[in-house]
Amino acid sequence: MSVIPRELFMRFRGPEPIQRTPLGNAIDKATLKLLQEAFISSSDKNVVTSPLGVMILLSLYNTGAGEETQQEINNYLGGACPAELAESYSSLSRKFSTLNPECLTVANKIYVNKKFTLWEKFSEIARNSYHSGVDKINVEAPAAAAALINEWAENMTRGHIKNAMAESDIKPSVTAVLVNVIFFQGHWSVPFKAIDTKEKDFHTSDGNVIKKPMMHLLRAFKYTKCANIPARMIELPYKEEGFRMIVVLPNEIDGLPAVVEQAAKTGLLDDIFNLRVADRVDLDMPKFDIENCLDLQDLLSKIGVNAIFSEAAPGIVKDDFINVTKAIQKAFVKVDEEGAIAGAFTAFVTCRTTSVYIPPPPVKFTVDRPFLFMILHEDIILFVGTLSK
């Protein structure tokens, strides 16, 4: 007979229960929709993205956009109007700004063609609600302009994201570049031991079996069988308060596409908030490292955000109309025995428009097949991705 110390349960429960919020619900659904399209478009099905970075820029752009664009962005982000969205994301920005920057950095910047000026209202919203800096660039010197943006992104991600913006992206017609960086570095509350990491079988998405370095822990974790998705779920907490990784393991070896498809319809927060402590979980999980660059124009168009690339936005740049001509995101994640590092650079380029008990047997949770993962702060999804090979 074993006794589970009270402090063990307190560590999992945390000082205060995590509250579910309307913004978290909206971000959940929007995140999984974008992941589905990125997963479908990926050739190797190894994907990492920060839809939150996309949503922040969309909500900012929305404050100066045309009516059709605003409606599409409102529909995708789940807001009633641009002002409501701005307030939601402003509150989120304020919250993130109070967190330890060594753990999480969320930063925005607007680079404006030196020949143009932002409308005062848009500039005020960007600075005060989105904590965005505003700098001038010379688009007639594209190499220098791209280097300025890349230096900022590299600094914000502590050197992990380099050359995010190509010189070729800075054309003479560029009026402004809206950029966002999200960078996370977390440490497991209980680290894996490197000595326990062994090469084990992993079933890939193309039906092959390969060897991957599998980390191992036998301890208490929050765990659930998903209600509406053919999968099980586990939470790996970070020692940094409020942060956690969720691993969603399909029931079938080839079940990841169905899991992604269903998650895009229902979201995953219902299951996340159904997680309960399982006192003994026998976990095997691969170390992994993913980096990719996403064409957001293609992905956003597939989820109903099209007008941003064609409709004139009258409320951003003075005395001119603009639209987004390029939208990209460069993201990475690295997971090992100590924790995880993840980052994303997102850019919109705009141009003139033309207790006591007997323990049960441990729950086996062997991540030996394609799976979905997320990094959250409380109920807000920061990063999401899939590993298939």
From TrEMBL:
| Cellular component per GO, a single term | extracellular space
Instruction: Please name the GO terms that the record assigns under molecular function.
Output: serine-type endopeptidase inhibitor activity
Q: Name the SMART domains on file.
A: SERPIN (SM00093)
Has UniProt tagged this entry with the keyword Transmembrane helix? no
Q: Where is the Serpin domain?
A: 32-389
Q: Which domain of life is it from?
A: Eukaryota
Instruction: Report keywords, A-Z.
Output: Protease inhibitor, Serine protease inhibitor
Classification via InterPro entries? Serpin_CS (IPR023795), Serpin_dom (IPR023796), Serpin_fam (IPR000215), Serpin_sf (IPR036186), Serpin_sf_1 (IPR042178), Serpin_sf_2 (IPR042185)
Q: Name one Pfam family in it.
A: Serpin
Family, similarity comment: Belongs to the serpin family.
Q: What is this protein called?
A: Serpin domain-containing protein
